[in-house]
Amino acid sequence: MNISIRGDKIDITESIRNYVGEKLERLNKYFDEPNKIDAHVIIRVRNGEEIIEVTIPTGKYTLRAEQKHSDLYAAIDLVVDVLERQIRKNKTKLNRIRVSEPVGFATIDAEEEEEESVIVKRKNISSKPMGEEEAILQMELLNHDFFVFKNVDEECVSILYKRKDNQYGIINAK
Question: How many helices and strands (H and E) does the chain possess?
């Protein structure tokens, strides 16, 4: 696996670089050709917490995980565990669909399978056209993390969401 590590407000020492490389090498067994897989790692410090973000684009989809911890090495361990669960879960889904050998993934052993995620609730919504400020108010009144509405400003369906920094973001579906 080709690993690129970047530090934001932190110096990446050789020991950090080696530890990240050693832990991410654990994921090589899940890929047919690990030398063709790139992993992008960003390590940053915010409010006394070490944050590590790992993004691994594959042929079918992109694996991404982010973990926070007061200890950087613990955060690295946690993020690799999350990535490993994601890989195993997605490999199982692809194998169940009977897709020809998934691009980039090795075959899966039966004991590595995990439970498949299923949709447990489906909801149809009808919404009146509204502006972004009114959508924020509605989302806050409902005490939700996101809100879907017909955006009169952009003339499309929009998804308003609350970010981790308590600011808002909007996704427009045009």
Answer: 3, 8
